[in-house]
Structure formats: C-alpha cells, structure tokens
From TrEMBL:
Top-level taxonomic group: Bacteria
Source organism of the structure: Kineococcus rhizosphaerae
Protein name: Alpha/beta hydrolase family protein
Top-level taxonomy: Bacteria, Bacillati, Actinomycetota, Actinomycetes, Kineosporiales
Amino acid sequence: MNLTARLADYAWLVRAQLRLRTPDWSAGTGAPVLLVPGIWETWHVMRGLGDALHRAGHPVHGLDLGTNSADLASSAERLCARLDGLDLRHAVVVAHSKGGLVAKLALGRTDRLDGVVALATPFAGSRYATWFPARPVRRLSPRDPEIRALAADASRHARIVAFRPRYDPHVPRAATGAAALTGAVEIEVDLEGHFRLLGDPGVQAAVVRAVEGFGAGR
C-alpha cells in the first residue's frame, strides 16, 4: 500500500470521526442492527453503513464503548447489556476491526444475536500489535491469551460474515484468513486501507445483503 493511499485512509477516518450528530434510525421492520466500532473509534465512523441499513428498512443503534480500549470480555458484557436495554431480538451486529472480536465473544453470551457482519477484523490478532506502546493495542496481539482463546473457538463461525480489504496496513492477511475463520463466510473487497471500506457504497450494499441473509438463511 503506497503512502498516498495510506494517508487517504487516515484522512477518511478523521473526517468520519467528526460526524458526531446522532441520527434517529430507530424505525424499521427489518432485523435490528447494532453498530460496534473498533479501538479508539466511536460508532460515528460507521455512519454511512447505518444510513444504508436504515434505508433498507432496518432499525439501527450504536454501541458506545468510549474509546473501545477495554478488554474484550468487558466490552462484550456492555454489548449484551445494550441488547437487553433495547430489548432487541434476532439482532445482527455490524462491527469494524476490534468491534468484530467483541461481537464474536458476545455471540456466545446472548441469545439475542442472529449473527455478526465484521469488517477488517483481526480474528487471529495482528502481529503489528505485539510491540505497540499502548497496552490496549497490545491486547490485539496473536500472543494475547484472550485473542488466542477466541481464535481457537470456531463454534460461532457459522454466524459470521467477514469482509476484508485487499490490503490492510493494520491487519495482516493471516489474521483474517481461513485459519482464523474456518466455517465463516469471508469476502475480500478490492480496496486498500483499514477504514475506507466503511464508506464505500459497494461495501455498504454488500453489508446490507449480509445482514438480510441471516434472516433468510444464507
């Protein structure tokens, strides 16, 4: 991935993080959707996905995890509590990056979720996180016990659809490949970058189809 593309990826993220207005997406007759962001993100970076899902008839809600820097177990508890608080049933999580790990863990802790659609999620951890100065990022290393245990558990993979870009500067291919997600549906997107696929209209349309596929049987 060249420097220009990498800078464009980060520029997209900065612009997306500034969209702080909270829309009302609560109406809709489709499967309810919960948006779960990645580390150091708010769910506002997924605004375009929320708009697309709501236009398709889905009630959409965001999950506030602050900076999403807590451990996976604590965040999964908050996800389940949010589902309980909204009384959502047969819901689907649409998650970015670390949010997909939180959602996978939550799949085994609640009966309110039908599935997870994850984008650019390091399901086997990211080797780039191993020596990162900040502890919250190092928790995403393949060496982390929580990551290793979650990666080894394939019991929930049949309820996961995972999108990944052609090249991701934060998540090596091995972290999202077949070894990490045996039994899941994996889709490679012809884009470069960890963030920009969230704003791509083609990806958004595919995510809508994936969400609707849980209700129809894939």
